[in-house]
Design brief:
By secondary structure, the chain is an alpha+beta fold. It has a two-stranded antiparallel sheet with strand order 1-2. The longest helix has 17 residues. The protein starts with 15 loop residues before the first helix and ends with a helix.
């Protein structure tokens, strides 16, 4: 069973065998889902083009608030990755 240690800054290195099993490459992102007293690491793959057309903005909200759209994208990608 692989073990990772936390640094004083709360950082850790994902062990090589876990990176290999999840096919993680340098600079890729992961999402950490907390379930009870455990954390599950899942690769965060895809890009903004994967959800193209999924956000509807009413005419009263135009011009589009980029920060609002970006937060909605983050929520939807996280939901897709976690399966919620």
């Amino acid at each position: 069973m692989p073990i990772a240690a936390l640094t004083s800054k709360g950082q850790m290195t994902i062990p090589k065998e876990i990176r290999r099993a999840l096919n993680l490459k340098p600079s890729e992102k992961v999402i950490i889902v907390v379930e009870g007293n455990q954390a599950i690491i899942k690769p965060l793959r895809g890009n903004i083009l994967d959800i193209g057309g999924s956000i509807r903005i009413s005419d009263k909200e135009k011009p589009i608030d980029f920060h609002k759209v970006r937060e909605e994208v983050k929520k939807r990608v996280t939901k897709k990755v976690t399966g919620d």
